[in-house]
TrEMBL record:
Domain Biotin carboxylation intervals: 1-445
Highest taxon in the source lineage: Bacteria
PANTHER family per record: BIOTIN CARBOXYLASE, CHLOROPLASTIC (PTHR48095:SF2), PYRUVATE CARBOXYLASE SUBUNIT A (PTHR48095)
Assembly mode: Acetyl-CoA carboxylase is a heterohexamer of biotin carboxyl carrier protein, biotin carboxylase and the two subunits of carboxyl transferase in a 2:2 complex.
Species lineage: Bacteria, Pseudomonadati, Pseudomonadota, Alphaproteobacteria, Hyphomicrobiales
ATP-grasp domain segment(s): 119-316
Pfam families: Biotin_carb_C (PF02785), Biotin_carb_N (PF00289), CPSase_L_D2 (PF02786)
Single annotated GO MF: ATP binding
Identification of the protein by name: Biotin carboxylase
Pathway: Lipid metabolism; malonyl-CoA biosynthesis; malonyl-CoA from acetyl-CoA: step 1/1
Top class in the EC scheme: ligase
Catalytic activity: N(6)-biotinyl-L-lysyl-[protein] + hydrogencarbonate + ATP = N(6)-carboxybiotinyl-L-lysyl-[protein] + ADP + phosphate + H(+)
Amino acid sequence: MSKLLIANRGEIAVRVIRAARDLGIATVQVYSDADKDSRAVQMADETINIGPPQAAKSYLDIEAILKAARDTGADAIHPGYGFLSENAGFADAVADAGLIFVGPSGDTIRLMGDKAAARAEAKKANVPTVPGSDGVIGDMQEAAKLADEIGYPVMIKAAAGGGGRGIRIADSAEEFLSLAPQASSEAKAAFGDGGIYIEKVIERARHIEVQVLGDGEDVVHFHERECSLQRRRQKVWEEAPSSALNENVRDKLCASAVALAKSVNYKGAGTIEYLYDDETGDFYFIEMNTRIQVEHPVTEMICGFDLVAEMIAIAGGAKLRVSQDDVAAKGHAIEVRLNAEDPANNFMPFPGVVGELLAPDGPGVRFDHMLYPGYAVPPFYDSLLGKLIVWAEDRDKALLRLKRALGELQVDGLATTKPLFEALLESEDLRAGKVHTRWLEPWLENNLNRIKQKEGSNS
Ligand code: ADP
Ligand code: ADP
Ligand code: MG
């Protein structure tokens, strides 16, 4: 591989450029009209415009991206996360054009990116799944019968869903029969695929996921991350390792992830997501993300590997450069997602121009972001500006370090989620690790004043 085109934007584009440069690979950054002044465009060796701001006409336009690769002579494409990263047709088109796709094959994405199909693969590999339907729902009445057997509440999920979207909860058969068709037509509109399936709702579960890397033959895991702090089923705060697991469960969880990835000859970086019931010690597979994830840095901080560089090397034909014994986890890492949103105002998106910017620094601190003073955050995309990641010897020290780093961070001109994290650091439950996926939302309602007060002391 000699020239890598980045088919993405924002902080992940910056992250991929850095990894490529560390590997001595030249970079091409594509950009929409809205991103011509982005940090990734400023950093890349070459840049090329791929269309107007609307993602459908730029970052999601397969033809435009392939043409950009041809015009610049790139021989590989990194899809980042979101956009086309889990689009099997895109992976196929890249391969058909004679280029390297930095990720698994289109066939693997088809198998594991379809959430209903992936459940079947997990079952085959003896990985426990959430009780639910076998594959997508055909007949609604049949599905309602199954939901009765499973017991309400049940979750209705889009097979092609992601980013917390396309999920509904039904509390009764009546609700199920009215929500399911609605969910299906919404999934069709949002993901181009109306397939839905059902799962039992696991109450008070924790979200725990395992990072894997495969080279098509061997698979190595990089331990787990916990992402239980969620709003609208989107992660806002992630940690590694999880504070909920004992060594026995941890070993079983990581082994099951490796078994599943091996069973599909997984090639590239991937994440196997689970729900974990810390009362019973049971875990259940929910999905696999066949790409690099937003929260990969917490794993890099505890394991000491550059996962993005490794996935690029594997795509370029390298075998895994590490064996499982080389991957030790050390200390504790926490990541918080800095979004251009006002946490005191129902997380209203807050595009605007960055004023003064002070980035946190010092021992154990990493700030992966796309900001610079004067940068105008465009209103067209995801509100993620960057991620603040801290590492320390243990969780208590990491919490202290997060407080210190947030104190150093100053982003003028925008509302951000910084005050949310300052307020969260005062939560006894969170400090004690007593959280689950439905913990954050009620906490937000009960702590609005605390967030407002933090916001006030920042401005
Ligand atoms: P992560 O675990 O990496 O946070 P998410 O599922 O939250 O994964 O997705 C990361 C990014 O990808 C987010 O910006 C999200 O909005 C986007 N995304 C995920 N799945 C899809 C999808 N099917 N279609 C469009 N965007 C998606
Ligand atoms: P996405 O593809 O949007 O990331 P996931 O299937 O990974 O969707 O689920 C996102 C989140 O929704 C999980 O992290 C969890 O908080 C919640 N969730 C998903 N499935 C269940 C379930 N069966 N029971 C309870 N919560 C669930
Ligand atoms: Mg998920």
